[in-house]
Amino acid sequence: MRQIWITEPGAPEVLRVKQAPDPEAGAGALRIRVEASGVNFADILGRMGLYPDLPAIPVVAGYEVGGRVDAVGAGVDPGWIGRDVFALTHFGGYADVVCVPAKRVFARPEGMSAEQGAAIPVNYFTAWQLIVVMGGLKAGETMLVHSAGGGVGIAATQIARHIGATVIGTASGSKHAALRGFGVDHLIDYRREDFETRTREITGGRGVELILDAVGGDSFKKSYRLLSPTGRLGMFGISSAATGKQRSIVSMLRTMASMPWFQFTPTSLLNENKGVFGVNLGHLWGEVDRIRGWADQLLELWKKGVVRPHIARTFRFDEAPAAHHYIQDRKNIGKVLLIP
């Protein structure tokens, strides 16, 4: 098999394709011939040496794949062999063959390609947890999503519009036309406009009921201030800690120093009728049955045409550094995939 390794912390060029023997499916696992692997910002942070959950480098990153089952381990129904699937991988997804516990493998419905399947787990499960499970978004409410052009942003827009909510999104101006086509009601160019000021203008000063923020630092402060009474802030990343393409201690410290350490206090939450919560799908490996329930609901929305991953671009395995550059240069609208 072929794998993409993070050989050392650094710029995208530290990614290297290496050969290894095909793995054998162990007890309770399926072996998948991978047709597409999802690229996520967690992979980029891991490559930079900024992701604390990543196993020791050198390592193969990757959280999600789409492909076809070609072998099963002991205790697994052999009827899985030959089925088209997508799966959550606990690292190791940058490979053309993976072995995954059966509980983390999902049958692809008719009409769903391997690429679309690989674009679902991280982005759509995260968006579902943020909006439905913990955010409690309702029809008639307003949601602000940062980085609306990313995979989570587009997934969140589709889910929120299905619920009947209004969507405000932040993105660079060059992405606005495409994002209007995806259903974002109001767009803010974060490079030229202050999102806090513009959101207050859009909402007539009231603020919003739900905010999805993966930027971190000072953005968390502004987002919290924008919450209307009963509003909820969902934090699911700290991308502002990665301003360049290699690890910067100065950037990390600046981001940490600007975090709202004393803004979300029990007293302030009580008095202001606001809520703050965090989401990290990578810390829910012990909740696979719960996640399978989310998948069932999302796949029903797939059948209705609500869930439709948008693939920004695909890259060959030997182009993995270019894929990371593409995301860090903020060129993508939607999901970036690696194709063996």
Radius of gyration: 20 Å
Helix content: 25-40%
Task: Please tell me the CATH architecture of the largest domain by its name.
Answer: Alpha-Beta Complex
Based on secondary structure, the structural category is alpha/beta
In words, what does this structure look like?
With 340 residues, this protein is of the alpha/beta class. The chain has two domains: 2-120 and 309-339, Alpha-Beta Complex (Quinone Oxidoreductase, Chain A, domain 1); 123-281, Quinone Oxidoreductase, Chain A, domain 1 (Alpha-Beta Complex). Helix content is 30%, strand content 26%. The chain has eleven helices and 16 strands. It has helices at 41-48, 114-118, 121-133, 151-163, 176-181, 195-202, 218-226, 249-257, 266-272, 288-303, 320-328; strands at residues 2-6, 15-19, 29-39, 59-60, 64-72, 84-88, 97-101, 105-107, 142-145, 166-170, 186-188, 208-213, 227-235, 275-278, 311-316, 335-339. Strands 3, 5, 6, 7, 8, 15 and 16 form a seven-stranded mixed sheet that branches. The chain has a six-stranded parallel sheet with strand order 11-10-9-12-13-14, with helices on both faces. Helix 5 (176-181) links the parallel strand 10 and strand 11. Helix 3 (121-133) crosses helix 10 and helix 6 (195-202) runs parallel beside helix 7 (218-226). The protein starts with a strand and ends with a strand. 47% of the residues are buried.
